[in-house]
Specification:
The protein is mainly α. The protein contains 16 helices and 12 strands. The strands form 6 sheets. A two-stranded antiparallel ribbon has the order 1-2. Helix 14 packs across helix 16.
């Protein structure tokens, strides 16, 4: 059924509800209409959850380079947390398909049945899913876990509210998890290795930390690896980006020891012709080769050192460093944008780059306050490497989503 077909199918019900709002309708009839509306809403909740699960299984959003959670948030303009919980619910209550095409039982089987029958709404289903997804519940014996899930589904269908469900769930889980968590593991040694990948660029980080060191790293990465709007990243990728963000912050702001008489910094070598042709090829000091999107992002807010080279790579002239944006321009952009300008993001200026709206290398964009916008590293990469685009409107930066998220491509902005 097409989008217009879905809307047409619901038009009659909407008209009936509108008629029930008329003051001439009796009180009992209006209340009955309200009950019917709630019943239909529960059925719609289930079918919406079912459709999300179907698209998730087919990899429709993954094929577009976006996680299901981010796609749902953008399609419905939901908060990321709401979208993340709805997708988790869909994976828990909709019957999955096995490797041979067979239909398997959903994880929350009793809850799924009550949900499909219109006995539960999304809020109560989510309360059950969240309670049974915690560490204490996961430690329970599978048979005990299934009994608790069935009891919670029945209690919810009897008219319990989400808060009541959470209370009862904690009590039941406590009964089946009386042993508590396993004892802490013994202390570990400390080691760290950086292994470069000469074929693809980049590399691997391998190591082991003691308890306090691991806690320090985990705390920093957790603070910086929360899901951000429009960013198609899983947990592992978010944590990798967070580690890079911490190191970039240290390079930009910390008092690190000098290397070769200068503060440590990233060097990227790019031919002038290629830099003017949208910067598609370059090389880092440690041998890595950034992707075109990464290279344009690095060039977007960087010092440029022009070099004139003749035959045998002999340097004839090493020009002075020229910043893409002066400190004054950055202060003006910070005063205007306050934080990352992408809607729903709030990363502070210290963690943000200045993105050229009209690209400096490809489009000869000016380095001016009117042509730069404050973007965190995640959204800076997204603008360079995905279907999103940005423009400066009268009230600040406007972000245009790709057509599959919004066919009308209505600009979005942070309030």
């Amino acid at each position: 059924m097409t989008e217009n077909g879905v809307a047409a199918a619901g038009a009659g019900f909407v008209a009936a509800l509108a008629a029930a709002c008329d003051p001439s309708v009796g009180e009992d009839d209006a209340i009955a209409a309200l009950r019917e509306c709630a019943a239909v809403q529960r059925l719609v909740d289930f079918q919406l959850t079912r459709l999300i699960a179907a698209l998730d299984r087919r990899g429709v959003f993954a094929d577009r380079g976006v996680r299901t959670e981010d796609a749902v948030a953008d399609l419905f303009c939901w908060d990321r947390g709401v979208a993340r919980r709805r997708v988790a619910m869909a994976r828990a209550v909709i019957a999955p398909i096995g490797p041979g095409g067979e239909v398997l039982a959903p994880r929350l089987a009793a809850t799924a049945e009550a949900f499909e029958n219109g006995e539960l709404d999304a809020a109560r289903v989510e309360a059950i899913r969240a309670a049974l997804g915690g560490a204490s519940a996961e430690r329970a014996d599978p048979e005990d876990w299934a009994v608790v899930e069935k009891q919670l589904a029945g209690y919810a269908a009897s008219g319990a509210r989400p808060a009541d469900l959470r209370t009862v769930a904690n009590q039941l889980i406590g009964l089946v998890d009386q042993d508590g968590p396993e004892p802490d593991p013994p202390p570990r040694h400390r080691s760290l290795r950086l292994v470069a990948d000469p074929d693809r660029g980049g590399g691997w980080v391998r190591g082991e930390l003691d308890a306090s060191g691991f806690a320090a790293v985990a705390t920093a990465l957790d603070a910086l690896s929360k899901p951000l709007p429009g960013a198609p990243r899983g947990l592992a990728q978010r944590q990798a980006d967070a580690l890079v963000d911490v190191c970039r912050f240290a390079l930009d702001h910390a008092e690190l020891p000098e290397v070769g008489g200068e503060r440590p910094h990233l060097n990227v070598t790019v031919d002038l012709e290629d830099l003017e042709n949208r910067a598609r090829s370059g090389r880092l000091d440690f041998g890595g080769i950034p992707s075109p999107g990464e290279l344009r992002m690095l060039a977007c807010d960087a010092m440029v050192i022009p070099m004139v080279i003749r035959g045998r790579s002999e340097v004839l002239d090493l020009g002075r460093k020229v910043r893409a944006a002066t400190a004054g321009m950055r202060r003006a952009a910070v005063a205007r944008d306050r934080c990352c300008a992408f809607p729903g993001c709030g990363r502070p200026p210290a963690w943000c780059d200045l993105h050229h709206i009209k690209e400096w290398a490809r489009d000869r964009g000016e380095t001016s306050v009117d042509n730069v916008v404050l973007l965190c590293r995640v959204h800076h990469r997204m603008v360079h490497c995905s279907g999103w685009s940005v423009r400066m409107g009268d009230g600040g930066a406007e972000f245009i989503p790709p057509p599959w998220i919004d066919p009308a491509q209505t600009p979005r902005r942070r309030l």
